[in-house]
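Repro case for the chain-ordering regression, as requested:
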Amino acid sequence: MNCIVTGGAGFIGSHLVDKLIQQGNKVAIIDDLSTGKVKNINKSAEFYKLKIESNKIENIFRKLSPEVIFHLAAQASVVNSTNNPDLDAKANIIGTINLLKLCVKHKVKKIIFSTTGGALYGNTDVAATEEVYPSPASPYGISKFTGEQYMKFFGNEFDLKYCILRYANVYGPRQDPKGEAGVVAIFAQNMIKNKACTLYGSGNLKRDYVYVKDVIDANILAVKLKANEILNIGTGIPTSVNELFELMRKFSNYSISPIYRPKRTGELEISFLNYAKAKGLLGWEPKTKLTDGLQETIKSFNEKIRGGKDA
Ligand SMILES: NC(=O)c1ccc[n+]([C@@H]2O[C@H](COP(=O)([O-])OP(=O)(O)OC[C@H]3O[C@@H](n4cnc5c(N)ncnc54)[C@H](O)[C@@H]3O)[C@@H](O)[C@H]2O)c1
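-- result from build under test --
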C-alpha cells in the first residue's frame, strides 16, 4: 500500500509509520514538526515538513498518488485551542478540508481520521457509544467534530471512502510529557527523575487508557472496512488517576507522595468508551492490559532518560 501519514512525526503517527513500514508499505509523512520530533521519523519514510493547510501539499499527492491517507496531524491541545481557537481551526478544520479536497482530486481510495471520544462525548455514566451525540466543550472538540462532519460531507457528495476513529486516552512510548494530556508520560518522567506528581480532582477523575500499539492495529484494520463508519477505540474500562498513580508507582519503585490539586476548569469527571462497534466491524479489541502497557511505557522512558535523552 502506498500511503501518507499526516502527523507521522508525532506520538501516535510515528508508531503507525513504523508499523506500516514494517509491513512493507510505502509511507510518506506530512508534518510541520510543531509538536512532532525529528527523532520520531522513521528513516525509511519520505518526510515533508509542511502544514496540512498549505497548498504545497498538492505536489506530494501529485508525485506519490497515495492510495490511503492516515490523517493524524492536528493541533491536539485543549488549552492551546482555548487560547488560540483560530489557529486550532486552521490546522484541524482548514487542514482537514484541504486534505479531503486533494483526496477527491487525486482519487485516494480511503482516508482514516484520528479524532477524539473524550472531547466529544463529555461525562458519561456508562461507556459512551457512537450513538451519543457529541457536545464538544472546547474549540479542540468543536474543530475535531467539524472535521468529522466535513468527512461525512465529502463521503456523501464525492463518494470518498473514510473511517473516523474516536480515541480514548492513548498512552505509550514517545508520548510527550510536556503535553497537557499525557498523564502517563508525565508520571513516568517524574517517577524516573524522582520528582513529585500532581493529581488533579483529588485523583478521582477517571479515564479510559488505551495502549498506542492497539490504536495502530485499529488504523490498519480500518483500511479494509468497506462502509464509511465512526468507531470508538478504547478499552471500556475507566481508571482513576489514583489507581494509575499506584500502579505506576509500584512499577517504578517510586516513593514520593503525590500533590493533590482541585480539578482544573473544563476537566471531565469520567470518560470511557464502548468499543463494541469496532469489535463487530473490524474484529478489533484492545489486546494490551493496562499493567503491561504501563510497564512497557516506563521501561521505554527509563531507557531514554537514563541514556541522557529526552523522553
Ligand atoms: N493522544 C491522545 O490521547 C489522543 C486522543 C484522542 C485523539 N488524538 C488524536 O490523535 C492524533 C495524534 O495525536 P498525538 O497524541 O500523536 O499528538 P502529537 O502532537 O504527538 O501529534 C500530532 C502531530 O501533528 C503535527 N501537526 C500539528 N499541526 C500540524 C499541521 N497544521 N500540519 C502538519 N502537521 C501538524 C505535529 O507536529 C505532530 O507531529 C491527533 O489528531 C489527536 O487529536 C490523540
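Ordering looks correct now. The chain has eleven helices and 13 strands.
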